[in-house]
């Protein structure tokens, strides 16, 4: 970008300023991806390791996440999001070590698409698990479904913690998708500015 002199009230943007903004964006992306990886792993572990045994008239019943398909979906989705986020964390770290800030267009589009898929996946998984949790907590009198959490309180509490972690993952993935979208469209914006303004 060309160095310029402002007449007094017109802001002048220099290449170094844009690089500083890019570094901040990359740092925010790295922090978000690390948080997503941690919360997604925590959610998957909390739900997948949750069991509670109850004896009802000498019959032992075990509550576990595989009894509810929505919880299986939540565990699988968070496992995929955690793995994807870990790979992206490694990519972010490598790009920072190499000093490369800007992405090329195909890579930026690939990251944006991957972030979109993971965001939709995490939101869908949390929504399904939350709906099942409401049925387990309050039952459904019209369908004669019991309030499962009255019998399996510990199981429901740990599942609730897992869903809460999954919710944080979903919100973070939505924010991260916006950041990766900004990275994609900024590349096209830079080209337009260069062709129009001669920067």
From TrEMBL:
Homodimer and heterodimers. Pfam families: CASP_dom. Residues 23-170 form the Casparian strip membrane protein domain. It is a multi-pass membrane protein. This is CASP-like protein. The chain crosses the membrane at residues 30-48, 68-87, 107-130, 163-185. One of its GO terms (cellular component) is plasma membrane. The keyword Amino-acid biosynthesis does not apply. Belongs to the Casparian strip membrane proteins (CASP) family. Keywords: Cell membrane, Membrane, Transmembrane, Transmembrane helix. It is found in: Cell membrane. It comes from Castilleja foliolosa. NCBIfam families: A_tha_TIGR01569 (TIGR01569).
